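Action item from last week, closing it out:
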Amino acid sequence: MGLIERVFRGVFGDGRNVIVETAQVFRENAEGAAVRQAATRQQSMQQFASEFRVPRVGFFDRLMDGLNRLPRPLLAFGTIGLFVVAMVDPVWFSTRMQGISLVPDPLWWLMGAIVSFYFGARHQAHSQDFQRSIAQTLARVPTVVANTRALQALRFDTPQVAQSSPSADLTLDAVTPASNPALVEWQQRQTQP
């Protein structure tokens, strides 16, 4: 009983599974991979959610946004309609234009001011929303810079990435470009006819 127990303890000793640990050297642990993939998906979804988050607005704000989208298409289609009417019924169109010529200049100025204020206020509201989104993006810059630096530190040509013991030779080899004999031979063959 003692011999068999020692053999099992040697193979599966101390509550560990040596076979599983050895197999993980040759094949990725599927459970661990699933956990990592789930974490990656969750982080991606959180990033997308924060990127495309729309601020909650009430019914009145949505109604006003909908109404604010009407004047420009109506003005464009109205202008096209005037051209069509001028071609279809020139007498009717000329009669209307004669009536418009009687509108006093101050009334035209007032209409211009109202239209300018309307579109100006809409433009200002949208530009403020744009500025707010830029500020939110700029607030994320330090995190992006830190992540980029951390990723750059993991490049293959960075000294001691593999956590080897500090060695001047290893550091020098990592930062000094070395010649590649196979590449040199290939380049020589390419230049020869």
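Closing note: The mean pLDDT is 81.
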